[in-house]
Write a structure and sequence with these properties.
- It holds the Pfam family DUF6447.
- With 67 residues, the chain is mainly alpha-helical.
- It has one helix and two strands; from the N terminus they run ββα.
- A two-stranded antiparallel sheet has the order 1-2.
- The protein starts with 7 loop residues before the first strand and ends with a helix.
């Protein structure tokens, strides 16, 4: 016997089976997932830029200390 479990998504602490949702609701879920991925990507890019900025600032301060 195979135990198959329907795909679910949880929003506001309530689980929804994807098969029970309308096509429009599933499209909204896909859009939410896409935007969440974009936010994660932008946060990663922000972290890279922030790290680079700190390195440039440190290099600038070292350069000023030479004079």
């Amino acid at each position: 016997m195979t135990d198959t479990k329907a795909a679910t998504i949880t929003i506001d602490d309530k689980a929804y089976e994807l098969t029970d949702l309308t096509e429009a609701a599933r499209a909204h879920i896909a859009n939410i997932q896409f935007v969440d991925a974009q936010i994660r990507q932008l946060n990663n890019e922000w972290a890279v830029c922030d790290t680079a900025r700190m390195a440039y600032e440190a290099a600038f301060k070292r350069e000023l200390a030479k004079t």
